[in-house]
Every structure is written in structure tokens, then in C-alpha cells.
Amino acid sequence: MSPIDLRSDTVTRPSDGMRTAMYEAEVGDDVYGEDPTVNQLQTRVAGRLGTEAALFVPSGTMANQLCLHVLTDPGDEVILERGSHVFNYETGAAGLLSGVQLHPLPGDRGRLKPSQVEAAVRPEADVMPRTRVLSIENTANKAGGVVYSLERSQALAAVARKHDLAVHLDGARLWNAATALDVPENALVAPADLTWVALSKGLGAPVGSVVAGPAPLIDDARRARKQFGGGMRQAGILAAAGLYALDHHRPELTRDHEKARQLAEGIAECPSFAIDLDAVETNIVMFEVPDDTADEVVTHLRDQGVLVKAFGPSTIRATTHRDVSMEAIEQAVNVLHAYADRAPAPTS
Ligand SMILES: *Cc1c(COP(=O)(O)O)cnc(C)c1O
């Protein structure tokens, strides 16, 4: 039997309908701007996010790095939350590719507060870096997929504007945020200067993200994409998967959230695990295991056919997605219960 894979929503495989759409895609050379399917995807995403233009890119990491690159000069500083993907999981790329310094702040459940951003903006001084960008992540992955409300996003953008900072929005899971809040994506994107969305996570496409913003910034991003080695040729085959995902998979995201809720409630019943049910807002479930045993628990669960990820010495992340059924979630809960029944209770 294939394992129940809750390591990430990136493990989703293209559905049959998606594969057909990819097979049938009309293509051209996208470095010449001649791939009709890529152009269609960019137009569609820009329309949906309410931006002037958009750019198809190979990965979310490249999307983040392009955004930072076009919004900064070397030596500038970017304020972000300390759990953010840009700070933790991009192998130092912001320093390497753009020569910027990152200024991480501790958020409440992964979310920055306007007052702490305000306090972190550097005054104009010869000895200090220029604070140029406020980077936020919606949903905040490491915090367990928690959502920035519309009000919080707007309040942060107001602080940024006051200090002349650009707002960068990492929207790897913006679809999940919009689903959880029941607002259209464009409302969440409006406070940002530059954003991007992933097609290859919960939406289930094999590859690809789309950067979105004003046309001049997207022109800069296209140039930087070539510099970073991300210019693709007949990429319409991949863009077709993205278009298919928007039509057919995006409307189904609520189910991923229901599965996460089910999983979280199952975990909450285990006395040896600790979980904050209020923090489970989308498709990510973070829970605590007895002292420093995360790796051990991950290995045990793997042997029982359930794949999850250690996110700290005592923290585990499980992510729901379209390739895991509600029945599989129930099975995973049974496996967790069986483990918990024989494990000691956490001391904290
Ligand atoms: C996955 C992820 C990224 C990076 O996307 P890749 O396509 O894996 O490079 C960036 N930000 C967040 C919040 C993510 O979850």
C-alpha cells in the first residue's frame, strides 16, 4: 500500500484531467514571449489577483528572490518574520543574489504586528542599512498555516507606506488564506506591491509559481528571471497545468482544510501530543510530541505508513492536500493514537 503522505502539499501529483490539459497545450518559445498558454496563464493570474501584470516562474523560491531583487539595492534591509521561508529555507539566496540583509522579527503565531514593524524600521543614518522592504507570508507556513487577516495586512501596509517600504507578499499558500477567510485573492493582494502564488502546492500542478504586480516591476522581474536562469522555452506544457488547477482544483481547497481539522481533532485526543486547535486555520497541522522525540515519532509513523515532517526537536508538521482522502486521514489518526497510547505524556 502506498504511504499516506502528509509531508507537504507539494507531493501532489497531476490529476488525469491536468495531464490531458498539459498534453494538449499549445506552446511556443516563452523567452520570445511567444508561448500562448504561458501568456494566458499570466493574464489569468493577473486578473484574478487584481494586478497589472504577471510572470510565470519555475519555483516559489525563485519568485521570492525575484521580488526581493527588484525591490531592493545591495546593502538594503528586508524586515520579515523569523519563521519565514525567505529567512529559513532559501539557502541564503537573498544575500547571495541581491546582497540584502534580512531583519527577522518574532511574530505572534508567525504574524508580524504593525507596531513591531514600525519599531524595526531604521532611521536614516550613514552607519545603518536602509530598510526597504516589508516581507509577509500568507499563510505563514512554519507557524502552521496561519492566516493574516485583511485588516492586519492593511495595517502592515499602512506602516510600510508611511516609511516608504515596499510590501512583498509570499503567497505560496495565498489560495488557502483566501479560502479560510472566504475573501477573493485580490483583496489580500491589494496591500502588497509585489506578490506571487504557487501552483505546485495545494493546487496540484507539477511545477510553477506566478509573480504578480505592476507592469514595470514585472518587466524588471522578467529580466532578473533570465539572469537567475529561469527563462523557460515551451513552458506552456507547465502553464496548462496551472490553468487547469485554477479551474478545477482551486475550488476544492476547502476540503483540504476540513481534512486538517479532522486530523487536528484526532491529535488533540491523544494525551501524549499537544496541539493548539485554534492555530489550525488552513491545511497545515503543527503538533508537539514528548521532549525531543520528533525524529523518533517521524520514523515510527513512517514504518506504519504515515509520512510527516519534523519541524523542530519536538514539533511535527502534517500537511493535507488533494491526494490524501478523508479516509486516509482517519487511518493516519488511528496510527497516531496507537503511537500515543504507548508513549509518555509531554512534560511541557
Ligand atoms: C514552498 C514555499 C516557498 C518556496 O516554494 P518552492 O516552489 O518550493 O521553491 C516559499 N514560501 C513558502 C511560504 C512556501 O511554503
Features:
348 residues; alpha/beta; Aspartate Aminotransferase, domain 2; Aspartate Aminotransferase, domain 1; 2 domains; three-stranded antiparallel beta sheet; binds pyridoxal-5'-phosphate
Description:
Helices cover 42% and strands 16% of the residues. The protein has a seven-stranded mixed sheet, sandwiched between helices. The protein has a three-stranded antiparallel sheet with strand order 9-12-11, with helices on one face. A two-stranded parallel sheet has the order 1-10. The model has no long low-confidence stretch (mean pLDDT 96). It is built from 14 helices and twelve strands. The protein has two domains: 16-248, Aspartate Aminotransferase, domain 2 (3-Layer(aba) Sandwich), CATH 3.40.640; 252-340, Aspartate Aminotransferase, domain 1, CATH 3.90.1150. The chain has helices spanning 16-24, 36-49, 60-71, 85-88, 93-98, 114-120, 150-162, 174-181, 185-189, 215-227, 236-249, 253-268, 294-303, 326-340; strands at 4-5, 53-57, 77-81, 101-105, 131-137, 166-171, 194-198, 209-213, 284-288, 306-307, 309-312, 315-319. It has 348 residues and is of the alpha/beta class. The chain starts with a strand and ends in an 8-residue tail after the last helix. The radius of gyration is 20 Å and the shape is globular. Strand 5 (131-137), helix 7 and strand 6 (166-171) form a beta-alpha-beta unit. Residues 59-61, 64, 85, 137, 141, 170, 172, 198, 200, 209 line the site of pyridoxal-5'-phosphate.
